[in-house]
Amino acid sequence: MTLLLDSFWRAVAYCMRPRVIALSFLPLVLMVALALGLGYFFWSPVLDWVRSQLDTFSWTANLWAWLDGMGMGNLKTVVAPLIVIFTVTPVLVLVALLLVASLMTPALVGLVAERRFPNLERKHGGSVLGSVARSLGATLLALVALLLSMPLWLVPPLILVLPPLIWGWLTYRVMSFDALAEHASSEERRELLRRHRGWLLGIGVLSGYLGGAPSLVWASGALFAAAFVILVPVAIWIYTLVFAFSSLWFAHYCLAALQALRARPFGAPPAPADRVDPVFLKAPDADNDPTRGLAP
């Protein structure tokens, strides 16, 4: 728990550094270009398709009639945009995670290592190809899990639990590997993931919940349609900054754990803090003291 909290506050402090803020804009430029390009070509057709699909259901006609009767007929104009937004949001989260992992995480891990662990040996236990393969594999599994779990999102409590858990698992799989790829050997990485799997998964899940914060920006209803150009970059930058924070959190935690691991051999139990060998409590024997007679 001490290591978890210490790495958390260090990650928060590092997010305030100008270098980290500048790095967070690199994926933002790509994400904004992608979002605006997709929105320009596909926003209207997708919106029309969703509205046409909604009109085919009898229960939506009853819903529109009920809204008109309550004097809230204008609300039906924001239903289709919200459906599109909430459908696209998980995909944007996954893309942001991959961009941060590929563009920012190596630089952020290098920053943490440079400032906190300059003497930590680099054993290069992970490769760029291995990182990409691991990220793609974990992302595909997360996408499958998201698609399979979507029907369960209709249950109100589960929509607050399942997506952050899936994103958290993906964050844990990607970030923990990238944080240790440069400094840890393959054996050290497996040992650290075995010892700290629960804490690292907890960091990933908490990061997943933090990743849900930008949804408040997306879910602004009619205002979103009016301020699309402004809100999309803001939401994507928040996503990117959250994942940058996650990278720093994993980097601080994993490198500190690696340093502690190297200070103690594999399999060696930690020394009890409350146990003192009685031999060190005895006064030295004057007759057998090897330093007797030596000049101070």
Regarding quaternary structure, how should these chains be classified?
single chain
Helix content: over 70%
What is the beta-strand fraction? under 5%
Largest beta-sheet characterization: none
Mean pLDDT: 75
Number of domains: 1
Low-confidence stretches: 270-296
Tell me the span between the first and last alpha carbons: 46 Å
Overall shape: it is elongated
The sequence of SSEs as H and E is HHHHHHHHHHH
Radius of gyration: 26 Å
Please give the count of helices.
11
How many β-strand runs?
Answer: 0
The chain-level structural class is mainly alpha
Walk me through what this model shows.
With 296 residues, this protein is mainly α. The chain has one domain (2-39, 81-263). The protein contains 11 helices and no strands. It has helices spanning 2-15, 18-55, 58-69, 76-116, 128-149, 156-159, 162-180, 186-210, 215-218, 222-226, 228-262. The longest helix has 41 residues, at 76-116.
List the helices and strands and how they pair.
Layout: H1 2-15, H2 18-55, H3 58-69, H4 76-116, H5 128-149, H6 156-159, H7 162-180, H8 186-210, H9 215-218, H10 222-226, H11 228-262
Helix pairs in contact: 1-11, 2-4, 2-11, 4-5, 4-7, 4-11, 5-7, 7-8, 7-11, 8-11
